[in-house]
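User: I've been going back and forth on whether these two constructs are worth ordering. Before I decide, could you fold them both?

Assistant: Sure. I'll take them in the order you sent them. The first construct and its structure tokens:
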Amino acid sequence: MLKRTLFFVNPYHLFVKNKQLYVKDKMIDKEQMVPAEDIGYVIFDNKQLTYTHSVMQLFSENNTAVIFCNDKHMPASMMINFESHHLHGQHSDYQIKASEPLKKNLWQQTIKSKIRNQASVLDYFNKKGEPLREISKHVTSGDSTNRESLAARIYWNSLFNNFIRHRDGKQPNSMLNFCYSILRSATAKAITGSGLIPVIGIHHKNKYNAYRLADDLMEPYRPFADRIVKETFAKFPDYKDLTKEIKFDLTDILTTDVQFKKVTRPLSVGLSMTTASLVKCYKGERKKISYPIFK
């Protein structure tokens, strides 16, 4: 069953009764029950939100990821359950012992998949994706020749017409920031759900980054976020701030369909398929990570 995403942008009070979540609207003094087992993600984006400690315990017990937004209404931190897999210790041992050649091979697969999906996004919007598809054929082990960067310059310039991707750059950079943050949180949830450690990556090595593996594995999924952002930007071309309506559209990243070789799944489920396949790569049971194909 596809889990629900709850996005709180108005003042609510959350509490637990009979082991279920209750949400009370402070403005109209009305409450409703939400089955805890149905909730996959919760996003808090209002300073007047209040909740009891039992709510956080309930979220943890049901493996619900909680995302907290900052003063700029951007996802800033998250709470995830680190004991959501019964073989966490065993899987993390394999992860820690992974060899450098294996990790370089996995990164090569990751970047190839990302660039191919970027090419398909350009095709989707009737732009030329073939140059990127050609670049993807020349990605080496560990992407030692940095084909990712070359593809990115072509991709962004084409997707948004002379656009430069920069966190603090012109619009729709803020949409991309928000959508990527949600995607990153979902990736971290899938990682812990497969008994892996988010801080131990296959490529990213920044010592200040606690979610290096999430930043690795989300790369081939970014083009799915880019598609949502481009379509949302077309609806709100003159936006200055991320409104409630815009953010609701961007959170569709969690439920958008992604296609694997034989099945189509919601993105949040697809991430779990990817992390489960990575565990098998670490254990030597398979050679390729399972990544979705943009179509």
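The second construct, handled the same way:
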Amino acid sequence: MSSSRSGAAQKIYIERPPIEARCYQEIVRVGALICIKAPKLMGKTLLSHQILAHAEKLFYKPVYLNMHELSVQTNDRPFNNLDKFLQSFCVRVGDNLGLPEQLDSYWNNRLCSKVNCKRYFEQYLLPSLDSPVVLCLDKVEQVFPDQEVAEGFLTLLRSCHEDANSKEIWKKLRLIVVYATEVYVKLPNDQSPFNVGLPIELLEFDAQQVKRFAQDYGLTLSVDSVTKLMAMVGGHPYLLSQAFDHLKNYPAAENTLDDFLANAPTEAGIYGSHLRELLTSIKEHPQLLEAITQLVSTTNPVRLDATITRKLESIGLVERHGNDCSLRCNLYRQYFSDRILGKRE
């Protein structure tokens, strides 16, 4: 989905103590590995950029790589060939470091893809650097659907992380792995990158953080207004940023906040585009549509198929309650109740 935060929101960062301090402490550690997990539009990328900016102040070399780019580089054949994927990965990391591509010099067809990738880092990329590199891999869930590529790449990350304990050259590499869904790739426990290092899971903002977010927009919202807004969208960073954009551009809007919130769960409101994208995505998958129908038919948490729950959670539509789940906020409940059941709550 194409929903994104506004230009103003992208310049605003609300801290989630003690997460930032823990990440800054971890990133200076030899062999650092930070795994950041949260649904889409929850601020994962913003946090990763904060960590990279902190690393740059320490004279580390920051590299940000959106994994979706690699599918574009392979002629829209996403992640269906481990060798091509790892070659693209190596080239893109080199590009971000300002290093020319040297695959012909280091890629040996008699060796397996993972060995070639590690050789490229060991013999070319890392020796070319005079300081540690912090490599941030965003949207890593993009590789999950292909078991072969996912297993090869993810176990490679674990191996690189562990090599920092025994090989001097790998002490230059620090990793940030960012993803939006539960890891459903089958990996041996001793080869997974997700059960080592520092795990970070981003939650919604609390009331104090919401108030601070509004203040950074130049808004002074009453306690009652904050309460009403959170009753509709919770502490969801993206949904809040859209509301604050609107309130900043239309200062009188808070005087009629009830009208604003009444329109919010409709396609005529400020969330119309975002809601339509979600509805279109759901209607393309009958199983997701059936699951949403179950969720809007009750106010109680529902136990869905684990795969369905994972997909809905990754796009930010639901939150878990143990093995059950419910719609994340009233905005989604009211909109989908109206569009699917024909009932306006």
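Notes on the second construct follow. The beta strands are 33-37, 61-66, 133-138, 173-179, 198-201, 318-321, 324-327. The first strand starts at residue 33 and ends at 37.
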